[in-house]
Every structure is written in C-alpha cells, then in structure tokens.
Amino acid sequence: MSDFQHRDGSFICFKNDKDGNESRPDLTGEGKDPAGNLVSIALWIKTGKNGKFITGTIQPKNAGQAQSQPKTEAKSPGKSGFDDLEDDKPW
C-alpha cells in the first residue's frame, strides 16, 4: 500500500494511542483538502446532552513536523470513547 494516494477532499483516520493522556485525540489521520494540500486530522469523541458526537481539527501537514508524529496503533486493549462508537454511529 505504499502507493496509496489521497484524493483531494478526502482523509483517513485511525484509533489513536492516548498513552495515558486523555487530552490526546481519539482518532488521528491525514488527507488532502479540496485544493490538494496535505493535512493532518485529529478527532475527539465526546458525549453531549443529545448523545455522542465527534469534534476535530484540520491543520496543514507541515504544521506539526517539529513535534512527534501521531501514534495510530493501540499498544494495549482498553476501554475508550472509541470502543462503543460502533453502536452509536451518528450516520
């Protein structure tokens, strides 16, 4: 899959290893904005008075290069806001 290319206006996210830090995003990923520029995606699963919802940020891919890259694989199984999302998909 090393030849994979995002289409303009699309992205992909994976479950993020929070590594004990609950302020880290639940999902992280990358994609392209409608103009074709690479972007980094960070998503948080939250619960409000009407149920679960997802909030997030989109930033230019080069904005976070000085920081470590987001981790996309969980090191150990555990309960997170992501685990029960399967039953409550907002779509």
Strand content: 35-45%
Rg over C-alpha atoms, rounded to the nearest angstrom:
14 Å
User: How many domains is the backbone divided into?
Assistant: 1
Binned, the helix content reads under 10%
Number of helices: 0
Biggest sheet strand order reads 1-2-3-4
| Sequence of secondary-structure elements | EEEE
Alpha-carbon distance between the termini? 28 Å
Query: What do the pLDDT scores average to?
Result: 79
Low-confidence stretches: 67-77
- How is the main sheet built? 4 strands, antiparallel
User: What form results from the Cα inertia axes?
Assistant: globular
DSSP summary, beta strand count: 4
Backbone structural class: mainly beta
Structure description:
- The chain has 91 residues and is an all-beta fold.
- It has one domain (11-76).
- Helix content is 0%, strand content 35%.
- Strands 1-2-3-4 form a 4-stranded antiparallel sheet, with no helix packed on it.
- A hairpin with a 5-residue loop joins strand 2 (27-32) and strand 3 (38-48).
- It is globular, with a radius of gyration of 14 Å.
- Mean pLDDT is 79; it is low at 67-77.
